[in-house]
Amino acid sequence: MQELHDAPLAPLTTFRLGGPATRLLTATTDAEVIAAVREADAAGTPLLLIGGGSNLVIGDKGFAGTALVIATKGFDLDGTRLELAAGETWTDAVAHTVEAGLAGIECLAGIPGSAGATPIQNVGAYGQEVSSTITEVIAYDRTTHETVTVKNADCAFSYRHSRFKSDPDRYVVLRVRFSLEDANGLSAPIKYAETARALGVDPGDRVPLTAARETVLKLRSGKGMVLDQEDHDTWSAGSFFTNPILTDADFAEFHARVKQHLGPDAEPPAYPAAEGHTKTSAAWLIDKAGFTKGYGTGPARISTKHTLALTNRGEATTEDLLTLAREVVAGVHDTFGITLVNEPVTVGVSL
Questions:
Q1: Rounded-to-integer distance, Cα 207 and Cα 309, Å
Q2: pTM
Q3: Catalytic residue flag (residue 343)
Q4: Which residue among the candidates 16, 23, 142, 160 is catalytic per the annotation?
Q5: Which of 132, 116, 137 is nearest to 51 (CA)?
Q6: 3-state class (DSSP) for residue 18
Q7: Of residues 28, 72, 92, 35, the one with CA closest to residue 175
Q8: For residue 96, which phi and psi values (nearest 5 degrees)?
Q9: Hey, is 326 helix, strand or coil?
Q10: Distance from C-alpha of 116 to C-alpha of 110, rounded to nearest angstrom
Q11: Ramachandran bin of 25, using left for φ above 0, alpha for ψ from -120 to 50, beta for the remaining angles
């Protein structure tokens, strides 16, 4: 297991931000992951788990403890059953399932990060969420000191949330198991309206798997949501804020503020959520509150391609990023009465 001291963490994140870790370990097997976690826990050493680094905002002072990069590999396909090691690159895994003619995660193409992070966030995009195909998550339980298998029904999946996210210091994801669909080379039914329009089909239709994946990649690229070393619009964590889910009463109040601010004919995006709740669009809120594409004059700015992405233009610090994020949160709240919640995990800092 590789070990470094006073090691920079910024290169391990898609923001390319953050100070060094006191100690940096890289584990390439499940046994190494467990050994490193047990060692840190036994010594009472703070532990930071790093996968693809696409969902991390690390403070400029870095991390005073052990940072553990989970770099395990494993893509095991048996019929329609797939098992991924936590360190597998998610975009590669999606591409391999499409090549194998299996449907279920093709619209999650282009999402940066590792496979082990997907159940934590219940990663989703363009009408698909991993909770629809995950059957089991194998994890190390830091409370019971044993490896456990968590069935889908016990993962407490919801919008960008799970049992693992609600108790972040307990579980270390080691492997994720999926059940995919053999639909004779066709995708799962297309659910997202934007994807259907781009494909020229109706919602609910199936299309060739490759067409679904390529269309999603094109849509994501147009929003700066596919990693590109040369494109600072992709030096981000993708969507920085989650879409707010409001109670009926809160949505009615929000709706009234929209009319007041934007005029009597204005209508905010509204999507059914849980019973008695409605989801609206964080990107819409940000834009209508005056934070348009490219907003900002400093080294951290809103993406020129998508208002939901905050970006490092190359010379930013984490504090620059947080200053921008706080400005956006305050502006949206003042305008619409809604407090945006950050999607990336913050380390050593907070909004």
A1: 29
A2: 0.92
A3: yes
A4: 160
A5: 116
A6: coil
A7: 72
A8: -65, -40
A9: helix
A10: 16
A11: beta
Here the tokens at position 298 are 């400093």
Site of tokens 């590789």: 2
The catalytic position among 162, 236, 239, 303 is: 239
Q: Which of 83, 129, 136, 343 is catalytic?
A: 343
Q: And the tokens for 291?
A: 């934070």
Q: What are phi and psi of 246, to 5 degrees?
A: -110, 145
Residue with tokens 């993406």: 303
- 239 a catalytic residue: yes
What the block records as the tokens of 346 is 């913050």
> Is 330 in contact with 290 (CB distance < 8 Å)?
no
| Per-residue pLDDT of the chain in tens (351 residues, 90 and over written 9) | 899 999 999 999 999 999 999 999 999 999 999 999 999 999 999 999 999 999 999 999 999 999 999 999 999 999 999 999 999 999 999 999 999 999 999 999 999 999 999 999 999 999 999 999 999 999 999 999 999 999 999 999 999 899 999 999 999 999 999 999 999 999 999 999 999 999 999 999 999 999 999 999 999 999 999 999 899 999 999 999 999 999 999 999 999 999 999 999 999 999 999 899 999 999 999 999 999 999 999 999 999 999 999 999 999 999 999 999 999 999 999 999 999 999 999 999 999
- The answer to whether residue 132 is catalytic is no
HSE-CB at 104 with a 13 A cutoff on CA atoms is 22
* Residue pair 316/332 in contact by the 8 Å Cβ criterion: no
